[in-house]
User: Fold these one by one.
Assistant:
Number 1:
Amino acid sequence: MAITAEQIWAAADALDAAGQSPTLAAVRKAVGGGSFTTISEAMAQWRTRKADKSTPLREPAPPLVMERLAEVGADIWAAALDLANARLNSEREALEAARAELEASRLEAAQLADQLTVEVEDAKTRLEALTALESALQTQLGEIKQALAAEKAASKVLSKDLDQARDAAATAREQGIKVREELAEMRGKLQTLQQQNAELLERLPTAGK
């Protein structure tokens, strides 16, 4: 809910009545927040209203003066009052000019404070985003490390399997050579038997006659 000018004026009146200076920060704290620009503009109106409440000095001459000086005394008193009012008006104009300059400075400061507030919020948002990104990167880095460790373990297993396969292939080659040697030996024996059988067959007819 936005802070209204009436709330700002009420807070300023309360601070002024308590003898405290109604600065922008004090009023902002009293109303519980709000934009410095809004508070500055409302406080400018509050100070103008407060200045307008002061009235020129219009006091009647004391009875003793009226009695002794009559018309002359009244003229002198009126001249004195005019002089006092002229001085008061002059001082009021100077005060109004100084107040306008001060209000311009305060408004500029309030705008700067609002800008800084936005920049701080933006910085916080960027910091939160960077923190989240860093956390995500850390998570991804952990996952990559785990994947590399798993691949390394798998590589070790594959290397072991490859070594076993090589050993098995070497054993198979050795067994193949041995089988070929045995086969060659058996072929030799078979040829010998075949030759012996042929010789026996050649002898059989001769023996029959």
Number 2:
Amino acid sequence: MAIAALITWLFTAIGGFILLGTWIAKGGARQPRTTHLPPPIVFGHFLLAVTGLVVWIVYLIVDKVAWAWVAFGLLVPVALLGFAMLARWIPVYRARVAAGQQEAAEGHFPVVIVGGHGVFAVTTVVLVLLTALGVGGS
């Protein structure tokens, strides 16, 4: 299960990199007026997720359950920040669809990537928690 968590975490990261790259390329970081996603939330989400992934890799190497719990502890704020960004993105997406425009940087996010990122993220959180609890072996 620990390897499955790593795999889903990597797929989550790929989607996250696509979204972050799109957001930066469309001016989200340069022109805060053109985004509904505050840069500290975006970059905080990214940095905590990367830190958690590194901790998870350490867990896989040393096989000490404390590392799994630290990784899970890092995933909690990552998930909360992710849900906060999703809540702010949904009205932007709806407005873009209704008006046929893409003014906000996050208005350019591919829906399939947003959805996939979310599904893999939730799966990762569940697998990390189950691994930390010792369900299914390590």
